[in-house]
């Protein structure tokens, strides 16, 4: 399902995610947007340093990629993310017109602190979108990506849980 090229870009996303270390409490999430075989944006989660709840890795990457191509629409581009995109980033993926979303760890691979909702899988936004040309594939380098985050059963102190 995943090509060597996919894995190579996911490695790039992991590198971006861990630019400031591998502390799982800092939500080290990386995202890469690739168009015509070239990375047009490589970003990481920057919510803490920018004091901006929307500064998720994917959002940062959409902003940079749009400027790079001079267009808000990123048709035929591929978004790589080390973690399943949240609802905001999934919606932004739909609006940005990327052609494919590839993520590493899924919500069942990590602690619930990385997601905003209890039960609803926001990936369903993709299934319900008007667009029929958006491909979604999870589990690329799943183990390596999941290792960046607290596991589902880890006992995470409440003050470190960003979603509550
Ligand atoms: Zn997000």
Characterization of the model:
There is one protein chain. By secondary structure, the chain is of the alpha/beta class. The chain has a single domain (4-160), classed as Cytidine Deaminase, domain 2 (3-Layer(aba) Sandwich), CATH 3.40.140. Helix content is 31%, strand content 18%. The chain has helices at residues 4-17, 47-50, 57-69, 87-96, 124-128, 142-146; strands at residues 30-35, 38-44, 78-83, 100-105, 135-138. The radius of gyration is 15 Å and the shape is globular. The termini are far apart. 36% of the residues are buried. Bound molecules: zinc ion. Zinc ion binds next to α4.
What is the strand and helix layout of this fold?
Layout lengths: L3 H14 L12 E6 L2 E7 L2 H4 L6 H13 L8 E6 L3 H10 L3 E6 L18 H5 L6 E4 L3 H5 L18
Parallel strand pairs: 3-4, 4-5
Antiparallel strand pairs: 1-2, 1-3
The chain binds zinc ion (ZN).
InterPro entries: CMP_dCMP_dom, Cytidine_deaminase-like
GO molecular function: catalytic activity
Organism: Sphingomonas chungangi
Counted up, domains total: 1
Percentage of residues assigned to helices: 25-40%
H-E string: HEEHHEHEHEH
Count every beta strand, where a strand is a DSSP E run of 2 or more residues: 5
CATH superfamily: Cytidine Deaminase, domain 2
CATH classification, class level:
Alpha Beta
Query: What is the overall shape?
Result: globular
Strand order of the largest sheet: 2-1-3-4-5
Protein name: Nucleoside deaminase
InterPro entries: CMP_dCMP_dom, Cytidine_deaminase-like
Domain CMP/dCMP-type deaminase: 4-128
GO molecular function: catalytic activity
